[in-house]
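Researcher: Structure for this, please.
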Amino acid sequence: MLQEISDHKSTGVFEKVPENQPTTSVVVRPVEQPIALESTIQKVWSCKWTKMWGSLASMLGGVGTTTLLTKLNNKFSTTPNVFEVVIWALVSKDSDVGKIQDRIGGNFGFSDDSWKNKSVDQKAPDIYGALRNKRFIVLLDDLWERVDLNQVGIPKPSQENGSKLIFTTRSLEAWELFRDKVGDETLNNHPDIPNLAKQVAKRCGGLPLALITIGHAMVCKKTIGEWKYAIEMLKRCALPKLENE
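Model: Predicted structure, token format:
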């Protein structure tokens, strides 16, 4: 045995000892179990490593992304992966930076009243300190507008730190769904139609049935006048809007 060790040392040949993959810290969330969704989850799982950030709407066409994001979150608890921390946070339209920080901080035990009473500027270093030396993935659900990662305290994902950011947005989901139903042939028929189409999609209030029905109805509408007429008709309807105008 000693001779074998001596021979290995003299030749400098050593087998690499495999390292155990670190356990991912992830909070498993309750989620519905829709039928025939696993193939879609696998599609997202295979895509998530390709960019530092990405939208599920751009990956999947914008249908049921909250459920998909939650299932993706839970998959990290059972499937080997490279991340040390998985953070899921609901952003929503009425969420400010402080609320986002509270939801993220809960992953690290920052949940007592003394921490919640801190200012945004005081919370950011705590979150940054908890993440700065870890490979993490942040899942932001229902994003309505751009979030300043520095203000929240999230280190910017990069190739160097290997971290990622994935998000869902209702406005993007609505447009992707509507665009898919109208089709590129109609949208590209006139340079002004895409902007008018976005106004029509916005008037649908994020309602999938309205987006699908009106999208199908607009497939054959290839003039500016027809699109402007559709916008005027929708203004008279009681459909909720995505944003205040």
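Researcher: Any notable elements?
Model: The CA atoms of residues 133 and 161 lie 8 Å apart. The mean pLDDT is 78.
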